[in-house]
Write a structure and sequence with these properties.
Largest sheet: 6 strands, antiparallel
Radius of gyration: 26 Å
Structural class: mainly beta
Oligomer: single chain
Order of helices and strands: HEEEEEEEEEEEE
Number of strands: 12
Helix content: 10-25%
CATH architecture: Sandwich
Shape: elongated
CATH class: Mainly Beta
Distance between the termini: 83 Å
Number of helices: 1
């Protein structure tokens, strides 16, 4: 015969109570805010022999950092585009460095890409409702006969968020 009494049932219930309390605390940590991240969509278009890359900060082209606080440190803000054409010369935009071609090449699906990038030189704006909207830009390439054939591109945004580089990479596509 077992020795189950009211006292042993009550004692067992007391031991189970802390487990319930610990389990109840877990959802509050699961509800912590998401880490900062990049939300970006650059418009890349080609007309005739000219390539244009831009961020207008409208509903179709934008560059933002989400989930930031006033203590979040954003540095080394870069916008870049990979293009399967080397040697393009782009105009710059106010608040951004001159567009430069990287010496490194990138290969995706058998296509060699060259990276063109600019770094934000203007101050990073303060966050509004947890979002920083990076100043807009517009780069226009000089006319190039190399742009008469298919042009493959890939847009990217890179920002050091609290000292760690975060990269947002778009889809490769043809323009």
């Amino acid at each position: 015969m077992t020795d189950i009494t009211r006292r042993s049932i009550t004692s067992g219930a007391a031991w189970s109570l802390p487990a319930i309390t610990v389990a109840a605390a877990a959802p509050s940590s699961a509800g912590s805010p998401p880490p900062p991240s990049i939300r970006r969509a650059f418009s890349v278009t080609r007309s005739s022999n000219v390539l244009t890359v831009q961020s207008n900060n409208d509903s179709t082209s934008y560059y933002q950092v989400l989930n930031v606080t006033s203590n979040t440190k954003l540095t080394n803000v870069r916008a870049s585009v990979l293009v399967n054409v080397s040697g393009l010369q782009f105009t710059g935009s106010t608040g951004w460095s001159q567009v430069t071609q990287d010496k490194q090449t990138y290969v995706d699906n058998g296509i060699t890409y060259y990276r063109y990038f600019a770094t934000l030189t203007a101050p990073v704006p303060a966050p509004v409702n947890g979002t920083v909207t990076i100043p807009s830009f517009r780069w226009t390439s000089a006319t190039s006969s190399a742009l008469t054939r298919s042009v493959y591109v890939n847009g990217r945004g890179t920002i050091a968020i609290d000292g760690t580089d975060v990269i947002q990479i778009g889809a490769y596509r043809v323009v």
